[in-house]
Amino acid sequence: MSSERSSFTGKIGFVLAAAGSAVGLGNIWRFPYLAAKYGGGIFLLVYIVLAITFGFTLMITEIAIGRKTKLSAIGAYRSLNKKFSFIGYLAAIVPIIILPYYSVIGGWVIKYLAGFVSGRGDAMASGMTYFGGFIGTTVEPILWFLLFLGLTAVVVLLGVEKGVEKVSKIMMPALIALILFIAIYAIVTIDGAWEGVKYYFMPDFSKFSIMTVVAAMGQLFYSMSLAMGIMITYGSYMKKDISIEKSAKQIEIFDTGIAILAGLLIVPAVYAFSGGDEAALGAGPGLMFGTLPQIFDVMPFGDVIGAVFFIMVFFAAITSSISLMETVVSIIQDRFHTSRRMTCLIVIGICLLLGIPSSLGFGLWSNFTILGLSILDFFDFISNNVIMPLVALATCIFVAFVLKPKSIEDELEIGGKAKKRYLFNIVVKFIAPICLIVILVSSVLNVFGVISI
Ligand code: TRP
Question: Among 77, 150, 252, 363, which is least packed by CB within 10 angstroms?
Fold first, then answer.
């Protein structure tokens, strides 16, 4: 099988493909709401420190494992050491949990896109009121979810990912430019936004708690598609003459840059509209949908800008959901040897089973919570704050003490000099395992209400 693996062409091909999968709703929707909720500047600082140390280490490790074995996660861990093949299975569960609720949020994006395209942007500008009303209804959010899921499935079934990728390559730079433009416009024109910029960039250490680290770490996994086997798969297609370290650095800069920009668009505006009210800042998953229409409402040509903006966000979201669905399909296909079409149907079935309850959890089923979380938040929590840290912990222990860091370093050396050997060694052996254990224990204790942080 390994000899049939196609490779990414050229140096930039790998980075673009990996970054294309990494950049999605995680950057535009998830990062800003977490940054707003967990104290602004302090969250940003913790996130950047983690990205440079921990995220970097995990990313080069996963890419190196993929390139070394030329296999996807399950096969890769199995081929390195039979006893550790469980890491591959654990990693494989993550995209299966993420895809359904990712599609629910993708549905919200289409709803807002449709709203702006049809010129009803001003109706959405009531902040969280409109949004809360929308997700609280039973049928409508499910229909939008089905549309998003259906579009994703059609692309995967017809195998036309390349076409979508081409479009999204144009959309991505345009999206960055638009975010920057809207952010600057909002900061300059909205009263009180400057205070929000300070909140976003100036770390307030009194707002630091272990939950800041828990949230930042979960976000890091999610946004960079780490600890779920994705980077192993990407690595398996990577040519030997490309530097893993350099590529990882570029992916990280790209991914983090877009997340920080999206935060700059949303956080100062929420701050200004709410006067820095904690409840507004802590609004959670709906934050982007409540805030953006308010910004567009005060902008000239706001409806048009809003429409263009949501079209671009839609493309960022669908490229990620396509690659998520591809991943899930290939995991199931490898394991059960089902036909591609059959596998797609199975995956759609799983998405309906998990996605519809996620959507209903904000309305009809809002009284039903798991560990105090709504259904969608529960899936988000269990994947990002429990399974992914577990996968990362197992990976670090495996690499540090069984496989030995040397074997990863040798792989790093093939396509370029391994400059960060020292960092890699101490992070993988000591810092990462200790941090991960602390994080796992505190996030679980927190959700069980044993400790409140
Ligand atoms: N990183 C993506 C984002 O920021 C989401 C994501 C998680 C993803 N896992 C993935 C995308 C796997 C593609 C493949 O939105």
Answer: 150
Q: What is the mean pLDDT of residues 359-370?
A: 90
363 phi, psi to nearest 5 deg: -135, -100
Query: How far from 320 is each of 21, 259, 369, CA to CA, in Å?
Result: 5, 15, 28
Whether residue 143 is contained in a domain is answered as: yes
Are 395 and 453 in contact by the 8 Å Cβ rule? The answer is no
Confirm if 319 and 24 have CB atoms less than 8 A apart: yes
Would you say residue 135 lies in a domain?
A: yes
The closest of 221, 179, 174 to 315, measured between CA atoms, is 174
pLDDT, one tens digit per residue, over 35-87 is 999 999 999 999 999 999 999 999 999 999 999 999 889 999 999 999 999 99
State the CATH number of the domain containing residue 27: 1.10.4160
Helical H segments across 298-362, by residue range: 302-336, 340-360
* Ligand 1 pocket, residue 321 CB under 6 Å: no
Report the C-alpha gap between 174 and 161 in whole angstroms: 20
Kindly write down the DSSP assignment for every residue of 2-37, as one continuous string: GGG-----HHHHHHHHHHHHH-SHIIIIIHHHHHHH
Domain that holds residue 393: 2-447
Tell whether the model's pLDDT for residue 10 goes beyond 70.
no
Examine residue 130 and state whether it is found in any structural domain, yes or no: yes
453 located within any domain: no
Residue 224 Cα to ligand 1 midpoint, Å, equals 7
Q: Distance between CA 366 and CA 357 in Å, rounded? A: 10
Mutate to test the pocket of ligand 1, among 62, 96, 97, 222 (most ligand atoms within 8 A of CB): 222
- Counting ligand 1 atoms within 8 A of each CB, the residue from 21, 260, 330 with the most, and so the one to mutate, is 21
Distance 324 CA to ligand 1 centre (A): 7
